UniProtKB/TrEMBL annotation:
PROSITE patterns attached to this UniProt entry: CYTOCHROME_P450
Domain of life: Bacteria
Organism: Micromonospora echinofusca
Binding locations of heme: C408
InterPro entries: Cyt_P450, Cyt_P450_CS, Cyt_P450_E_grp-I, Cyt_P450_sf, Cytochrome_P450_monoxygenase
Family membership noted in the UniProt record: Belongs to the cytochrome P450 family.
Protein's UniProt name: Cytochrome P450
Amino acid sequence: MRYAMAGRSVDDARGRAARSIPLWRMLPGLLRDPLGQLVAVADSAEGEIVRLNLGTIRPYLVTEPAHVQHVLRDNEANYTRGGNSMLWRPVRRLTGEGILSDGPQWQASRARMQPHFTAKRIDSLVDTMSRAVSDAVDEFDEPARTGRWFDAGTELGRVICRAISSVFFADRVSLADQLRIVAAQGTIVTALRARLLLPFVPDAVPVPGDRALSRAIGVVDDIMLPLVRAEMADPRDGDDLLAALARARDEQGRPLDERQVRDDVVASFATATETTYAVLTWLWPILDAHPEIAERLYAELDEVVGTDRTISREQLRALTYTRAVVEELLRMYPAGWLLPRTALADDVIGGTRIKAGSIVVVSSYITQRLARFWDRPDVFDPERFRGDQSRRGHRYAYFPFGGGPHQCLGMYLFNLEAPLVVATMLSRYRFRLREPGMPPKQLAAALRPGRPVIMALSPVRERRPA
Ligand code: HEM
């Protein structure tokens, strides 16, 4: 579908006004398939920035890769996540004012946390993580033997927590408590939807989901605050994030505030679990709908992993198709799909005037489905990420992890963890879904499937005698 754009004035020196698309023209599509509708708007704009006239808010939609680069990297100082960005405010109730904010507080958090997530540090974790994933996947032996149905999201949450807990808290948080945090996050993400959809409503005005939100934040605090207090009172040597932040000092050499430690551990653990969980839950319906891709994946796993229980660094490197499947999943279902910013000062992007104080929306989902940059954008095809093809195109035609100074801190962690989970599970089991077909997309903080994915496993082959 194409969109006629409303007229606009041209003023070359200060850029021209963005074309504006009124709500009534988008509404039927937005109600049916909001993301599909936004991709259609962006396709029709043919590289220009458009302004969505949603009544009280009128965000600029920035989708062209060069313009995305301008906002996230080249002129990033002008595009803040903090301050008056209404879309970010609700998320802060969980994540506080550290790594997910902006300005000096963000900078200090980023500098403290960065060393924990570098490529080198994550690479040193391959063996530990591979064993942790293997142990977690062992627990599927029982449902695989009996053919019992289970909720993929819940079980993936368990596997993910076991894979990454050594990075975040060593053994200080029990698996049960980690799962309570993950469940609370699920409640928070859902409860925040009303706030995200009604960004102009002040916090003091109740909206549906507020009570559930407060209760869930209470669950997270009840687990994390006593733990942070105990760590700070008696610091350990560990290199997990909790131990390191509990020992950290600010620029004046003072210990951090316990709230700062809590905020940064919770924010990064929440981001890590929520995103990974969302992406890996999409895997099953996708493979179910593409049996030929599933077969290629199985063939690679059979050849590279065979009956090994843990995956080595060399095997991981050889799993090129598995990694391409994960990259393509991140193209079509990028968990961090919406990156809202607020323009601090007037700017001109690609000849279009951006007014100070307005909301600018960048979305990996939309750009990664633009027909001008992606051949058959709605087709799941891991071949795009094989060989040299992945190097084609603009850096910001594919940015599931964002870019610029706020680029995802967990990129290397995810790129290690996700192929490990996929390869460990699918080298041992085949799966079937109770309900075939792609689930609808739930537009929460992360792009989750809009209904539970219920599946069952069966062993690929008998276990080798020990
Ligand atoms: C599927 C996996 C993931 C995706 C798609 C994803 C995506 C993103 C994106 C798009 C951003 C940029 C946000 C912005 O510019 O406003 C981001 C930031 C961030 N991500 Fe991830 N992420 C993933 C996994 C993880 C993991 C495993 C961690 C674990 C530490 C993590 C921690 C963070 C943090 C702390 C930030 C904020 C960084 C900053 O502002 O300095 N993410 N992520």
